[in-house]
Amino acid sequence: MFPDARILDVNLSEGTVTKRTLDGEIYRLYPGGSSLNLYLILQEMDPKVDPLSPDNFLAFGVSPLVGLPFAGNSRLTVTAKSPLTGAIGDSQSGGFFPATMKTNGWDAILFRGKSAKPVYLYVDGETAELRCAEKLWGKITSECEDAIQAEIGAKLDVACIGPGGENMVKYAAIINMANRANGRTGMGAVMGSKNLKAVAFKKQGHRTAFDHPGLLENVSGIVSQRLQENEGVAGLGQYGTAGDTQGFSEEGFLPTRNWTSGFFPEGAENITGGTMYDTVLIERDTCYACAVRCKRVVEIPGKVDPRFG
After folding, report:
1. pLDDT at 118 > cutoff 70
2. Which structural domains are found in the chain, ordered by start?
3. How far is 170 from 188, CA to CA, in rounded Å?
4. C-alpha distances out from residue 275 to 237, 278, 280, 281, 283, Å
5. How far is CA 18 from its chain centroid?
6. What are the phi and psi torsion angles at 175 (to 5°)?
7. What is the pTM of this model?
């Protein structure tokens, strides 16, 4: 039997947070992330809404597997009608925020309406409440994250917008951990249009519950070992996704100059994973339970802080 999905339904216009469940048979058909988000949105939202109006719905979703100790599964999907394209917008990020959302017990968050003043959503397990974000408005994402951390006084994972999202720049991102981005289709602009500055989850001292933990951890260990032994995955870990930059440019599908070109012959070699590895990389970071460690941490004194690299 598939478990029911647990959903936070946040009405920003009314300032309310309602806990809902979605029947497991429906959840089995739309198992998290993009599919669950879109299912929730299309149940009520008029597809002709203005993407930056209060009538647009915004959904955060994770899959049933998020929070389990498997490489590559800690993914957050954010979905809404896109102000950039006018079609459905769908954007993913990694890091630890998705796993923390899941260990708090929630599969999706649905935002509707628009708050009269800037707010953020704070979640600690069964406690979910909207808090004032007026003092956070105008802050860049790292400053916002630090300020919420100081206010709550506990370890958190925070997804938030900066001035770009607040001003509804149509390609604005949502950032978590100050360096993981839901960076496509303008989901940050939708947050800004709703006066929603951030979503903050308190880190929990437990993992996602699952059956047969010994068996699962044994399989997880085998997967991690095979990933580390795989030559292609090792290259991804060493050079990151930018390891393909040079080849993409030579083959004509490296997005260049705001997608007006697929080539960057005069500079692609300067931004490849190999070049960064030799010049600015100071360490490799990872997402929850991932053995690949493809996240770059770079430093360029006076220009790039390692926190954002």
Report:
1. yes
2. 5-202 (3.60.9.10), 214-298 (1.10.569.10)
3. 8
4. 14, 5, 8, 9, 14
5. 22
6. -115, 135
7. 0.91
